[in-house]
Design brief:
The model has no long low-confidence stretch (mean pLDDT 97). The protein has two domains: 199 residues, FAD/NAD(P)-binding domain (3-Layer(bba) Sandwich); 143 residues, D-Amino Acid Oxidase, subunit A, domain 2 (D-Amino Acid Oxidase, Chain A, domain 2, 2-Layer Sandwich), CATH 3.30.9.10. Strands 6, 7, 8, 15, 16, 17, 18, 19 and 20 form a nine-stranded mixed beta sheet that branches. By secondary structure, it is α/β, with parallel strands linked by helices. It has nine helices and 22 strands. α1 crosses α8. The chain binds flavin-adenine dinucleotide (FAD). Flavin-adenine dinucleotide binds next to α1, β15 and β20.
């Protein structure tokens, strides 16, 4: 089978591969290879869909904040619907968690001066089902918003196609070799060849590196469970996302129902993740301890893999052994809210070999995300 040439070859058409392809297609031809018959089948299609600048720590926050302008005012033609809808986040603490809430507030306030510390009564005004004997204090983050994940993902894919890029489904990368200065990738849907190969394979990123004959990083796919519960009698679609300050659970209104998670992080192989009954039970138990939400049945449930690098910071940069092999992995639990800036970061490091100007004011450098840090 003869190989088709392009400038940038990307493996994985989740939000990571789609965002990289969107920005790289401004500089040359892009082929985006996806194993499944539809992009977004794995982690990207299974998220909780919120944007919270506080979420993820100091190396994630710049990516989230710098993605805000794109998500609030996307480029012309990117989408017909708003990508962000204001919701707010309420981090809650029991009496024994007050010190954790104090520390969280102190870390956050320099970046988000608009956060509001609340007592139990004020927290219950925001979300009427919170139990008076559970919540002692809370922190409200107004910047948190609902994200239209599908609109963001499709916007990237559409933009990539409009600039002449291709999205090829049912295209598992089966073999990857370097020949004559190019990466040659064989799939059931054809053979592609490019000088630059972007590894955006999510939970499968180490497998892809091994296929290319390179050292894996030690990426860790961690399973997380979501349950959909019927609305309680006092339901309001305007409640904020309610999160335990120690990351033990969260819940929020979603299409007239309650979306909840036990915030589980169970190590997994890279697989089509499925929810375990025990995690569903833990979700229901933790939510019911904190809130007056009677659960007669679980209406829906799913699980997805949040894939982290060993230091939980994304890995973005060229491999120092494989010429032209670019890592774009480790988006963990923040890959949607950071996608615009992550895509720009990949574009800038690949095309200009430097950090994008949008990240200039933040305390991160190319070394923060470089795969070399694991050597
Ligand atoms: C329960 C849950 C809640 C979350 N909530 C949020 C949230 O509220 N906000 C937020 O920002 N993020 C959230 N996330 C995280 C976010 O969903 C991920 O960071 C993001 O989707 C990762 O995208 P990805 O493109 O790296 O991975 P994926 O979407 O998994 O894409 C990788 C793709 O690579 C393909 N692939 C793998 N190997 C090959 C191969 N050999 N050949 C071809 N294709 C291959 C796979 O088929 C897959 O489609 C959540 C995640 C979960 C699981």
């Amino acid at each position: 089978m003869s190989a088709r040439d392009c400038d940038f070859l990307i493996i994985g058409a989740g939000i990571a591969g789609a965002s990289a392809g969107y920005f790289l297609s401004r500089h040359g031809s892009v082929a985006l290879l996806e194993r499944e018959s539809a992009p977004g089948y794995h982690t990207t299609g299974r998220s909780a869909a919120f944007y919270a600048p506080s979420y993820g720590g100091p190396n994630i926050r710049p990516l989230t904040i710098a993605s805000g302008p794109f998500l609030r005012t996307p480029p012309d033609g990117f989408t017909g619907t708003p990508l962000l809808t204001d919701r707010g986040a309420l981090y809650i603490a029991r009496h024994d968690q007050i010190a954790a809430l104090d520390a969280f507030e102190a870390a956050l306030r320099p970046f988000e001066p608009d956060i509001v510390r609340m007592d139990a009564a004020q927290a219950r005004e925001r979300c009427g089902v919170l139990r008076a004997d559970y919540v002692a204090s809370a922190l409200f983050e107004p910047e948190c918003a609902d994200l239209d994940v599908n609109a963001v993902h499709q916007g990237f894919l559409r933009g990539l196609r409009q600039r002449g890029g291709s999205v090829i489904t049912d295209a598992t990368a089966l073999s990857i070799v370097r020949a004559d200065g190019k990466w040659v990738v064989e799939t059931p849907s054809g053979v592609w060849r490019a000088p630059v190969l972007v590894n955006a394979a999510g939970a499968w990123a180490d497998q892809v590196a091994r296929l290319a004959g390179l050292k894996p990083i030690g990426m860790r796919p961690l399973r997380r469970t979501i349950v959909i519960l019927p609305p309680p009698p006092l339901f309001s679609p305007h409640w904020p996302v309610v999160l335990d300050v120690d990351d033990q659970f969260y819940f929020k209104p979603e299409s007239g129902r309650i979306l909840a998670s036990p915030a589980d992080e169970t190590p997994s192989d890279p697989v089509d993740a499925q929810p375990e009954e025990i995690d569903v039970a833990i979700a229901v138990d933790r939510i019911q301890q904190a809130a007056d939400i009677p659960v007669r049945r679980v209406e829906n449930k799913w699980a997805g893999l949040r894939t982290f690098s060993p230091d939980r910071t994304p890995v973005v940069g060229f491999d120092n052994q494989g010429a032209g092999f670019f890592w774009f992995v480790g988006q963990g639990g923040y890959g949607i809210q950071t996608a615009p800036m992550m895509g720009r970061l990949a574009e800038s490091l690949i095309v200009d070999r430097r950090m994008p100007e949008e990240l200039a004011g933040f305390d991160v450098t190319a070394a923060t995300y470089d795969p070399d840090r694991f050597d």
